[in-house]
Design goal:
Elements (H helix, E strand, L loop, with lengths): L9 E5 L4 H17 L4 E7 L14 E5 L5 H15 L5 E4 L4 H9 L4 E5 L10 E3 L3 H4 L3 H6 L20 H13 L9 E4 L12 H15 L3 E3 L6 H11 L3 E3 L6 H9 L3 E5 L2 H8 L4 E5 L4 H4 L7 E4 L17 H4 L3 H16 L2
């Protein structure tokens, strides 16, 4: 192990701000605990993400904070840094690359502070990892894992895993029963929205037509996931599905979402956080990609399928397509249906 890290007893990890990225940082946090098994490891995360760390065995403490904007955020930042200072951490690993996330840790006077050095924050860090073009272009699991570089050579990252409790699984069974969803059928999940923007989204009517065909062929229900503000998309899809479409958008906690996804035989989704939650509970994913590159943000594992068209403007990383959205326009219902059916048949034959 490089450097002198013998006196590391209390570790703080500044977690990321998104659901999908949170899942993709699991291997980094897990490996950090492996390197310092006797340490007390705390995770500092926005309050809305605490659910995803409640059951994670490598974390000893969750420190939630409320993200605020404007002048009030300055007072909150100072209070947070003072609170962290009083906890006497020895080491901080800063997963986000924002200036603000590094400033919190710097003001807390944690002796060892490591993170990516861009965004003008080099002076705030003691161990700076250069974010090269090569690092930026790898899968996000490897991207975060590289922050452990100061500790020397480490093993390959484990796969991200959500550790569900029995109470979460029982809740999912009861919730589906109350919704009138019969057991014994291969439930299919769909996530037709995307937080980052409409450029990542396949057309709702295509999700609807696909769901109608799958519900009819497999005699099953389609569970529709998403955020509460994505209700218009869900409503459009349910026009095709009728009673076979179960609206769950905005109606679950993150662990409840994970428990429901675990009960699905398969999830059809855009590039979303829900996609990574499904993969982390072992549910196969058929992921539709357009404006983002799957080699960087795709579902982790070998049992997933990615549908993507090679068009000259993709990946563009834009929130809204400025032209004709051809990356998604070219993905047809027929080809996605064929991939899903093959996946489901393969699962049935196991």
């Amino acid at each position: 192990m490089k450097g002198d890290f013998k006196q590391i007893n209390r570790i703080l990890v500044r977690g990321v701000n998104w659901v999908g990225d949170t899942i993709l940082t699991y291997p980094t946090v897990q490996q950090l605990k492996t390197l310092f098994p006797q340490s007390h490891l705390a995770i500092l995360v926005p309050r809305y993400l605490t659910d995803l760390w409640k059951t994670f065995p490598s974390v000893d403490e969750i420190i939630p904070f409320q993200k605020k904007k404007g002048i009030k955020s300055l007072w909150e930042d100072l209070n947070l840094s003072q609170s962290l200072k009083e906890r006497h951490f020895d080491l901080a690993v800063i997963l986000p690359r924002s200036f603000r996330s590094a400033l919190h840790i710097y003001l807390a006077q944690i002796p060892v502070r490591m993170g990516y050095r861009d965004e003008g924050r080099s002076l705030l860090l003691t161990h700076r990892i250069h974010r090269t073009r090569e690092i930026f272009n790898v899968h996000r699991i490897h991207y975060y894992y590289r922050l452990l570089e100061p500790f020397g050579k480490i093993e390959d990252p484990p796969s991200p895993k959500i550790f569900l409790r029995e109470e979460d699984r029982k809740w999912a069974i009861q919730a589906l029963a109350e919704l009138g969803v019969p057991g014994g059928k291969p439930l299919i999940g769909m996530n037709p929205g995307a937080t980052y923007g409409l450029a990542k989204c396949w057309h709702p009517e295509r999700f609807g037509e696909l769901g109608r065909r799958l519900a009819e062929q497999w005699q099953t229900n389609i569970l529709l996931f998403g955020k509460e503000d994505e209700q218009p998309i869900i409503h459009e899809i349910r026009r095709y599905l009728g009673t076979k479409g179960i609206d769950l958008a905005g109606k679950t906690s993150l662990l409840q979402l994970a428990a429901l996804l675990e009960r699905c035989a398969l999830l059809v989704t855009n590039d979303t956080g829900t996609m990574h939650v499904a993969a982390a509970v072992g549910t196969p994913v058929v992921a539709l990609f357009g404006s983002t590159p799957p080699h960087m943000t795709g579902p982790w594992g070998d049992h997933h399928a990615v549908v993507k068209k090679d068009v000259e403007c993709s990946p563009c990383w834009k929130r809204i397509c400025p032209t004709d959205h051809r990356c998604m326009e070219l993905i047809t219902v027929d080809e996605v249906e064929e991939i899903v059916n093959k996946k489901l048949k393969d699962l049935n034959n196991k």
